[in-house]
Amino acid sequence: MFVPKSFAMGNxxxxxxxxxxxxxGILVSDDSSCVTESRLQASHLPFLLKSDEGEMGSLxxxxxxxxxxxxxxxxxxxxxxxxxxxxxISPSWYQARPAVPTWNYAAVHVYGCVELTSKKQTVKAxxxxxxxxxxxxxxxxxxxxEHFVDKLLAGIVGFKIKIQKVxxxxxxxxxxxxxxxxxxxxxxSRSDHFDSLALANYMSKSNLGIGNLK
Length: 214
Hints:
The protein is of the alpha+beta class. It has a single domain, classed as Electron Transport, Fmn-binding Protein, Chain A (Pnp Oxidase, Chain A). The chain has helices spanning about 10-20, 120-135, 145-155, 180-190, 195-205, and strands at about 25-30, 40-45, 50, 60-65, 75-90, 100-115, 155-170. A seven-stranded antiparallel sheet has the order 2-1-5-6-7-4-3. A hairpin with a 7-residue loop joins strand 3 and strand 4 (about 60-65). The relative contact order is 0.19. The model has no long low-confidence stretch (mean pLDDT about 90).
């Protein structure tokens, strides 16, 4: 990923926090056995980060057994991309002129090696994932009875990714003066697009020294 120095997300802890918040990623792998179609395969999947496993952490996920991508994952090197809020930025929001339109965003790329997990490991990872987003759901036998869970497990494949490299970028206009940053924040805040509003909220929570965005 191209990461200009001024837009680098920062340390590993910051990037891990981003993954934890925006945990729905895209898993990209290379199927070297494919000769008639594109070798690259991609799946949109939820990921659970275990930041204390290994030097850089580990990711856990699962996919449908009907998804052929899992058949080439074991011991494969993969890329997982995580995207945060993003939006079009109008040059009319800047005080400094001339200016051109751009797109602001935040994203993290993770590189690592895959290991298929056992049923026990897969159940543990899925349980942790559900507990993260809806604590207590698995205790509701009326909604998720145990026999139903066992049936669903037969249709999925779990895997773990040992993280080897992480890159993060936050392009939020932090290279511009405070007046321009405030102009962008207010422009996004007045939008009726969800992505623009989400980016404004992300800017207000960032620790980039952007200032008091109000």
